[in-house]
Amino acid sequence: MTTPKTRRRLLRRWIHRMPGMISCEELETFILDYLDDDLPAPKKRVFERHLKMCQECRDYLAAYCTSLALAKQAVAIDDGIDNTDIPEDLVTAIIEARNTK
Ligand SMILES: [Zn+2]
Hints:
The chain is mainly alpha-helical and 101 residues long. The protein contains five helices and no strands. The site of zinc ion has 6 residues, from α2 and α4.
């Protein structure tokens, strides 16, 4: 008799032995390129095929996207107070004041 956990483990092993299938670890290394749409078509297909069959990687990708979105928000907030808002004249004045000391 097999428990659901054993069945899942067997399924995972079976998934990874299929031709053209990647492991969960390999999938992780492709995630950034996948999200940037930089994966070549064959790799993208393999990536998506793995995702369809692997709940753990779907969960991982969802968590990854959430963290990425949060990181992007943080960067956007940083950009809001970035030196792009500081007038060029003020920067020049500060540099000149420092140099005269
Ligand atoms: Zn996986």
